[in-house]
Amino acid sequence: MTAPFKLVRIPTLKTTAALREHVASLGLELGIDDEILTNEQSPLRQGITWGDRTIGNRWAIHPMEGWDGTATGGVTEPMIRRWQRFGESGAKLIWGGEAMAVRPDGRANPRQLIINRENQAGIAQLRETLLNAHREKFGTTDDVVIGFQLTHSGRFCRPHSKVWESRIAYRHPLLDTKFNVQSDDQIFTDDQLRELVDAYIAAAKVAADIGADFVDIKHCHGYLLHEFLGAHTRPGPYGGSFENRTRMVREIVAGIRAAAPGLAIGVRLSAFDFVPFRPDPALSQPAKPGPGMPEDFSKCLPYRYGFGVNQENPLEYDLTETKQFLQLLSDLDIKLVNLSAGSPYYNPHIQRPAAYPPSDGYQPHEDPLISVVRQLKVVAELKAAFPNLLLVGSAYSYLQDYLPNVAQYYVRNGLVDFVGLGRMVLSYPHVLADATTAGKLLEPKLICRTFSDCTTAPRIGLRSGCYPLDPYYKTFEDAAPLKAFKSGATP
Ligand SMILES: Cc1cc2nc3c(=O)[nH]c(=O)nc-3n(C[C@H](O)[C@H](O)[C@H](O)COP(=O)(O)O)c2cc1C
Questions:
Q1: Does the Cβ of 423 fall within 6 Å of ligand 1?
Q2: Which end of the chain has the least Cβ crowding within 10 Å, N or C?
Q3: What is the domain extent for residue 456?
């Protein structure tokens, strides 16, 4: 059984000194600047060179999907609004926008955006809306770089309904049951993978025609290409050796370079992973999941079912292959890398540390700062090993009021190139624009408190958004069913 744990909430820590003290009490090391520098003095406002372009500042918007497209994966009003707010954030690097499925069957939900010719005009409108909003507020878009995130959801495909229609790289001893994998027929065959490579190339061509600066070949969060990096047990040309497990990315990159020569490529990567977690059954009640605990992996050692995980103790990371992968990206002349960790579906606490769990998650069993610091530390180690890459870091939102203080420290010291904003951007898109503007104070009412409604809503088939803090979602038609679900009614 998990030991009882009492969370010290960030808003109770009134000063940087109090945060520092709390961090030290956890035995962690976290860089925190006391003073936030503004305007041209701000390290977060310095441009950085990417090829022959300058990216105008050091904060990025992470891909944030809303489960809110049309039935054919097209664009809708809430989506346009989200991209407008991405533009208004002031971020000069828009990493991905949101996950875009390269094929209808690869959607993680029936409302995911699909990047194809049919939806090309709509996606172009998203990009235009973002650029116009940015230009209106910040004067120029010459230094804004936008990429589109290309994905196939693999194990997490739900293209038609809430029912999993998982397609996988290999059978997984702990995840198969959870995601409705019952047959080897769900494993992608080598021939099917070659077709999938073509779908990525076709999607990239659409992105190039729209004017995207780059495409992100998504390798994170347990989705298909991330799963391939851990396909140690798969036989044949796409499994086993490191070379085989990275064959997909090499084929996709070669195909995109041939079909869309001007289009740059980036990769979002789960740099490390742990085993799946679940609520401790001994401490759970029907509508109230208990604290997290690892699934029993004792019969799965050595743990050959993941990437960036210590095979002897899969509650620890191992960056050996992560570094090999970054070297491969560098060799492929891919400079933009966005680093994340784990998966929101099976170990959300390491991926998006939160004070309040989503409906399919578990209560914190340890301080979420442990997971924040883990990601920051790994990124710093990888940045030191690959100074030539431009690295975006993740998992900053849990820092809440202190996000700017930590962001500035890590950028100022060259420990990361871009601070990525995920959940925070849904409630407070311009948080870093405000923090780095002389005379401007943060707006505490907009600061993301990691309530996780943005994840709970889609888990029960509703659209994502910041229901607690964004006025648009307070009155959104999905707000009432979400509230009913949270108060215990059946959806
Ligand atoms: C509602 C929601 C949607 C997300 N959509 C995506 C996505 O489309 N692609 C992706 O790579 N990550 C996605 N993420 C993960 C975020 O990009 C980010 O990694 C995560 O929220 C941690 O960063 P944060 O602490 O700033 O929130 C999503 C997260 C949330 C909460």
A1: yes
A2: N
A3: 451-491
